[in-house]
Amino acid sequence: MADSHRTDELLIPLHVRYIQNLGKSTDELAYHMTAHLRMNAIYWGLTALCIMGHQDALDREETIDFVMSCWDEEAGGFGAHPDHDAHILSTLSAIQILVTQDALDRLDVDRVVKCKLILSLQQPSGVFAGDSFGETDTRFLYCAVNALSLLGRLSELDVERTVSYIRQCRNYDGGFGATAGAESHAAQVFVCVAALAILDSLDEVDHQTLCWWLSERQLPNGGLNGRPEKLEDVCYSFWVLSALSILNKITWIDADKLVSFILSAQDPELGGIADRPGDMADVFHTVFGVAGLSLLGYPGLVDLDPVYCMPASIIEARGLRKGWKSLPRRAE
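The structure corresponding to this sequence follows.
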């Protein structure tokens, strides 16, 4: 990694250019090997740009046209790429993109909500499947709750059954797993806590125990891991901080050390943020690194809503803001 730029500050122009260039490498094998992530990647890139104050760096109409080209008419949801089957993960990303771009009027909301995507994917236990093939996970439950909330259709959800399944996934350490009985994991903690926040059911969380477990994720180098005895990874800068922010305990993390860790994972030559210093940057870690910096009050960034992982102003305008707290925005 070259030292042509400092990495003790956020290299916003480089990151903007990095995200803009992601869609231009259509002749590279990696571009086609990641087609199954395309919708998610556009959401990640657009959200990162919004947080950095450069939403217009991606062409609005081109972005909307791509999203709509991924519509799966048979399923009533969105695939990750044109001609891919619909899935709840890509459907949520599509909805988030359309809401961010103020283009939700392009969507047949009734069809998305009531067809195979979204409500019919809820299982008798309360968990959601990702698609008609039936894989279940608390991630998919969060996607359904988030999407229904953004679409203004949360009243159609069986809230009691949904909360009951999340309760079954709670562990003795306060954390949550991917399924009932599964090991606690920071990413699963986020999806469960955020879903409970949307459903006004945070009383299901053991706040003190969970926040202790989350704060224990910080390692001596400042980075956060997802489970005990694992390596630090920039993406947990969002998964851990978002849950702490929702539970009003973000001060339980050493903010300065985490900021330094995130900034050290930047690529100072080509832009983007990696999972840890010295590794290759990608858009996934870029958005969650920038998101973590926003929650930590890093100067010059736009406020992020940790429940929806979208610009806070957009969520507030829809009347959906919950009682989370981030660190105060520091002066430039």
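The chain has 14 helices and four strands.
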